[in-house]
Amino acid sequence: MLRTTLAGLRMHKSRYATTVMAILLGVMFVSGTMVFADTLNANYEKSVMGSATSVDAIAVPAAEEPADPAEPSEPEPLTEAQLDGVRALPEVAGADGIVSGQAVLLDRDGRAFGFMPPAAISVGETSRFSAAEGGLPEGPDELALASSTAEQAGFEVGDTVTVLDPAQEEREFTVTGLVDFGVDPGYSYGGALVFAPGTVGEMTGATGYTEIDVLAAEGHTDEQAAEAVAALLGDGADVRTGEAFGLEMAESAGGDTAMMRTALLLFAFIAMFVAGIVIYNTFAILIAQRQREMALLRCVGAKRGQVFRSVLLESVAVGLIASVLGVLAGVGIGMAGAAFGGPLLGMGGSVPVVITPLAVIVGLAVGTVVTVCSALVPATRATRVPPLAALRTSATAGGLEKGTGWMRVVFGVLAFLVSAALVALTQVSGPNQLGPVVVTAAALIAFVGVVVLGPLLVRGIVRLVGVPLRRVGVPSMLAVDNSTRSPRRAATAMIALTVGATLITGYSVVSASLESTMTRMLDEQFPVDYQVSAQYSMDGASGGDTAAEEAPAEDAQDGAGTDGVPTEDTVQPPPGSEQEGQEGGADGASPEDPADAEDGAASPEEGADASGGTGMPLVPAEVEHALAESPLLDKVIAQRGGTVEGYDASPVGSLSVSTYDGAELGVDITGETVEGEISGFGPGEVLLSEGLADGLGVGDTLTLPSPDGEVDLEVAAILADAQTLWGAVVSPEDFATLFPDTADSEMVYVRAAEGADASEVRDAVYTAVDDHPTMQVMSVAEMKNQFSDMMDIAFYTIAAMLGLAIVIAVFGISNTMALSVLERTRESALLRALGLAKGQLRRMLGVEAVLLCLIGAGIGIVLGVVFGWAAGAATLPDMVLTVPAGQIAVFIAVAVLAGLLASVLPARRAAGASITGALASE
User: Fold this and answer.
1) How many helices (H) and strands (E) are present in the chain, helices listed first?
2) With 50 as the cut, is the pLDDT of residue 576 above it?
3) Most confident of 12-21, 92-101, 546-555
4) Angle CA 385–387–390, to nearest 5
5) How confident is the model at residue 18 (pLDDT cuts 50, 70, 90)?
C-alpha cells in the first residue's frame, strides 16, 4: 500500500498543485508573521539594551504610594546633593544626572511643533544616550534633536531652530546632532530636545534630576555599583543595573510587538481556515473520482484501514511538502517585512533577520495538521463504498451528487433563526461591551447555516441567474447546467470565498458607518470650520495661560503634582467615563436634609469651592477678540471651563462646569438629551450630564458655590453621556458669576461667514494667532479628512490581510474546475465532436467559474452587510448605516476577475485535449 500510494502521488502530482499552493500561502503567512515579529522584537531589545547597558547602573526617583489612589503624586526628583553623594562612592567611577522638562519647538512655519511640547533634557558625560549623528551640545546656543523629531519637523544637523523659553521669548539654537532614543516611551512618542547641562534649566525651569546614570569603578561589578547607589539613595530612588533597566524597557516595548503578532496570526488563522476548506474539497473530489481505484484495491485484498491510512499518507506527504515550501516562503516574507515595514515601526537596519526554531516548527506543524485534519472525512468516506458497487459505477464523483435531505434543511433554517434571534437581542439591549461578542457568535452560527444549506443556495441562485444566461448562447446555457449538476461540490468550493467576502464586506460596512456617524456628529453638534486651542503641556511649558494660573495659589497647589502636573482633581475624566458615572450624592453634594432632597435642591458640601479652570492650557482673550473682529467670520464661540471642588456626585470630588460664549445652544451647538430640551437655554439654568444627575431631573435646582455666595440653577435638561456637551453647562453670565477670574478660553470655535472665500477665511484665522505660536489651528474639514484617511488606511490594511484568504479561495475554485474538467474529459470531447468550438468550450468553463465566484462573493456580501450593521449598531449609539456601494462594486468586479483567472488553465487543458483520444480513453 505504501508503494501504491507513493506511486499514485508521483503519477497524479498535478492534481495537488493548487492544494499545495493553498497550504503554502497559509503557512507562509504564519511563518512570515513569526519571523517578522521576532526580528522586530530583537531590534527593539537591541535598541533599548544598547542604550541602557552603556552605563552600569541607573537610578530614577521612586514613586511614592499615594494615601488616596484617586490622587496619585509625582515622585520627587533627585537632588544635586544626591548626585554628589553618588559620585563620591568608591564603587562609582562617574555619574551624571538627566534634567527633564518640556520646551516648545517652533517648526519652519513658526508654529509650535506637536500636540504636546517635546521633552527637553540635558545629558552629561556619563549617560545612556549618545548622538547617532553629529555630537551632543556643549554651548548655550546648541541643542540636539531626537531623530524622530528632526524627521517629522524637517530639520537636519547644522540647521538653526527656534525654541520658546518659559517667558515665551524666542531663542535660536544650532542643531549639533541627532539622538536615537529608540523605543524609550518617554522620548520616542512626543519627541525630545537635548540641551547643554547649563541651558536646560533656563529653557524649562526644571530642577532636580529625573535619572542618574552611573559607571562602575574598576574592580567593581554592575551589581555592586547598583547596590551601593541604592544604599545611599534609600527609598527615594529605584536603582537597577543597566541590563535590568534595559530588559524591563524591552519587555514593555515587546508588548506592542506581541499585540501585532497576535493580530497578524489572527489573519493567518483565517487564511489557514480557508485553506482547510480548499483541502477538504480537493480530497473529497479526488476520493469520489477514485472510487473504482479504491474498490479495485479492496478487491485485491486491501482492508478498510489500509485504504484509510493510504489517503492519510497522501495528505501527510502533500501537507509536509507544502509546509516546507511555505516556511521557506515565510522566511522570505518576514525578511521583506523587516526590510520595508520595519523602518515604519522604528526598527533600525543593524539587526539581522531572526529565524527561531519555533517559527519553523509551528509552520510545519500547522500546515501538516490542517491538511491531515481536512482529509479525515474524505478518507473515512473512501472506506465506506462497497467494492463491487464501486466497480459498477462510472468514474464520476457520484459521492458528491447526493441530494439535500430534509434534516439538513431543518438544521440550516434553525441556524439562521438562532442567528437572527441573537442579532435582534443586541439591537434590543442597545450598545454595550457584550454586543460585538454576541454578533460574532451570531455570524458564526449563520455561517454554519450557509454551509449546511449551501447546495440549496447554489441550486436556487443558479436557476435564478440562469434565466437570462440561457438566452445569451449555448456556452452560457451549458455552464448553467454544469453548475447545478453537483451543487454540493460547488457549495463547498464557494464557501472558501464566502468567508473572505463576508469579513471584508463586514469591516467595510463598519468602517463606512463609523465614518458617517462621526461626520454627522461633527456636523450636527459642532457645525464650525476651525478650532483654535493651545498646545497641551503637562507642566505649563507651552507658555500659554493655564487655568491653574487663574486660580488662587492655594487652589493651584491643591490641584497639581510636585512638578505642576495636573492631578485627577483638576483634570476631569471624559464624558461618559466610569469616573463620571459612579454612584454618589447629588451634583452639588449631599443635600442638607431629606426635605431638601425631596424638593429637588442640592446644596454644596461644606468646604466646597469653585476654582477657575480645569488645568487645560488656555487661548488668550486677545485671540478671541481678533477673530470676532474679522468680517469673514460669522460665529466665534469661546468654550470656557471651571471646576467646582468638594462634590460627592463625582468620584474625583469635583464637577466640571463649562460655557459656550457666542453660541446659541440647541442651534449652534447641539447634543442628545435624556430629559428636557436644550433649545431656549439661558441664564439661571443648567444642562447636566446623566452620569452626574444623581436623581436630579428637569425643574430641580442645582446649587453651586461662587466667590459672592451660592448660585441656584434650574436643571433645564439632562444630557446623554459621552458627547460634546457634558458635565454642567451654564450660560456665559452665570459662568462669569461662578468664575470671575477666568477670562480666557479652553477652545475657540470659528464658523465662516456665508459666501466667504475659504483661503481668505484661513488667512484670517491664522493672522489672529500670529503673535501666539503655541496656539494650534485645526480645520474641521482637515479633521474629517484625517479621520477618513485613517479609516481608509485601516480598511486597506485589513483588506490586504484578508486578501490572502481570497487568493487561497480562488486557488480552490481553480482546483475544483480543474478536477471537474478532468472528470468530464469524454463529455468535453463529445461536445467538441458535436460542433462546439474551442472558444465556446473556454467560454463555457469561464462562465461556470464566474458563476461560482459570484455566488460565493454574493452570499458573503449579504452576510457582511447584515453583520457589519449589527456589529456597528451594537457598539455605536445612533449609528448611521452606510453601505459602501463603491467598495462592494469592486468586490463584485474582483469576483468576476477571480472566476475568469480560475478558469484559464482548466479551460486551456480542456480545449487542447484530443477529441479522438479523449473519446477512446475509456
Assistant:
1) 29, 23
2) no
3) 92-101
4) 70
5) confident
Kindly indicate the confidence band of residue 341, based on its pLDDT and cuts at 50, 70 and 90: low
Distance CA 486, CA 473 (A): 22
Residue type, 713: L
* CA-based max dimension of the chain: 108
DSSP-based three-state secondary structure for 675:
strand
The model's pLDDT over 718-760, given as tens digits with 9 standing for 90+, comes to 988 767 788 899 999 999 999 998 888 889 999 999 888 988 9
The 3-class secondary structure across 27-94, one letter per residue, is HHHHHHHHHHHHHHHHHHHHHHHHHHCCCCEEEEECCCCCCCCCCCCCCCCECHHHHHHHHCCCCEEE
User: Is 613 in contact with 545 (CB distance < 8 Å)?
Assistant: no
Q: Is the dihedral of CA 776, 110, 742, 592 positive or negative?
A: positive
pLDDT at 428 over 50: yes
Please tell me the distance from the alpha carbon of residue 546 to that of residue 620, in angstroms, as a whole number. 10
The torsion angle over the Cα atoms of residues 242, 246, 247 and 250, rounded to 10 degrees, is 180
Residue that is written with C-alpha cell 430534509 in the block: 406
* Grid coordinates belonging to 878: 445612533
> Residue 137 has what DSSP assignment?
-
Alpha carbon distance 35, 158 (integer Å):
39
3-state DSSP of 848-888: HHHHHHHHHHHHHHHHHHHHHHHHHHCCCCCCCCCCCHHHH
Rounded distance, CA 132 to CA 346, Å?
Answer: 14
Q: Is 616:536 a contact under the CB 8 Å cutoff?
A: yes
* Enclosing H/E stretch for 412: helix 406-429
Rg of the chain taking only CA atoms, in angstroms: 35
Q: Which amino acid is located at 829 in the chain?
A: A
Q: Are 303 and 5 in contact (CB under 8 A)?
A: no
Q: In terms of Cα–Cα distance, which of 171, 154, 166 is closest to 109?
A: 154
pTM above 0.85, yes or no: no
Placement of cell 483567472 in the chain: 901
Q: What is the pLDDT of residues 183-231, one digit of tens each?
A: 676 676 778 999 998 899 889 888 899 999 999 999 999 999 999 999 9
**Residue bearing cell 468514474:** 395
Pick from 610, 607, 608, 612: which is nearest to 551 by CA? 612
Q: Residue 650 has which C-alpha cell?
A: 463625582
Distance, in Å, from the CA atom of 593 to the CA atom of 383, rounded to the nearest integer, reads: 84
Q: Which SS3 state, helix, strand or coil, does residue 702 take?
A: strand
Hey, is 295 helix, strand or coil? Answer: helix
Strands (E), 306-408: none
User: Who's near 491: CB < 8 A, 6+ residues apart?
Assistant: 451, 454, 455, 457, 458
- Report the alpha-carbon distance of residue 728 to residue 91 in Å, rounded: 59
Query: Which region among 79-88, 604-613, 700-709, 864-873 has the lowest average model confidence (pLDDT)?
Result: 604-613
Contacts with 408 (C-beta within 8 Å, 6 or more apart), sequence order: 452, 453
Query: What are 144's three cell numbers?
Result: 540636539
Give the closest residue to 445 by CA, choosing from 465, 417, 469, 405. Answer: 417
3-state DSSP call for residue 612? strand
